[in-house]
Amino acid sequence: MIYSIAIFEGKTIQKQVFDVSKASFFYRNSIKELLTLFTNTFMSKVSDEVTVIYHEGYKITCGRSVCVISDEDYNDRVIMTLISESNINNISKFIKTYQIPENIDKITKIQKELDETITILHKTIDEVLDRGDKLDDIVKRSEDLSMSSQMFYKTAAKQNKCCVVS
C-alpha cells in the first residue's frame, strides 16, 4: 500500500497526497503530519538519484523530485514506474491507481497469478497424499478382513467335521 506521494521543487513540497483510509478516523491528521515530516526529512538528505530507505515495515523511496512512502513489501518496479511518470497534475490519480500494483505492472500480475497457482498445487498435492493414505488404510483393513474370514471358514469347517449327521 502507498501511504504518501510528494512532488518536490528543490527541497520544498509542491504537492503531497495521502491514503490513510485504513487508519482510524481520529488519527488520520496526525498520520498525515508525520508522513509530511518524514518526507521533508528524507528529501533534505537525498540527492537526485533514487534512494530507498527501509524503516520498521515501511519503505521510503525518494528521487527525481518525488518521494513515495509505502509498505516494505510494495513492488520496487512499480514504485520506479510511479516516480518516472509522476508530475504535479497526476499524483492525485496515482495514489488511487497504484494501490493495486498488479493493475500497473504485468510482471507483478503474472507473479501473483503464479503464486496463487503454486498455492493451489500444494493444496492439491496434499489432498492427493491424504487420499493415498486413506486408500492404504482401506487396503490394510480389507486384507485384515480377508484373513479373518479365512480363519472363520477354517474354524467353521473344523467344527462341522465332528458333528456330521448321516
Walkthrough of the structure:
With 166 residues, the protein is α+β, with helices and mostly antiparallel strands. It is built from four helices and five strands; from the N terminus they run ββαβββααα. Strand 4 (58-63) and strand 5 (66-71) form a beta hairpin. The relative contact order is 0.10.
Strand numbers in spatial order across the main sheet: 2-1-5-4-3
Task: Classify the beta-strand content into a percent band.
Answer: 15-25%
User: Which descriptor suits the 3D outline?
Assistant: rod-shaped
On the 0 to 100 scale, the average pLDDT is 84
Q: Which features would summarize this protein structure in a list?
A:
single chain; 166 residues; alpha+beta; five-stranded antiparallel β-sheet
Strand and helix map with partners:
Blueprint: E1 2-9, E2 12-18, H1 28-45, E3 51-55, E4 58-63, E5 66-71, H2 76-85, H3 91-97, H4 106-162
Antiparallel strand pairs: 1-2, 1-5, 3-4, 4-5
Gist of the model:
This protein is α+β, with helices and mostly antiparallel strands. 55% of the residues lie in helices and 19% in strands.
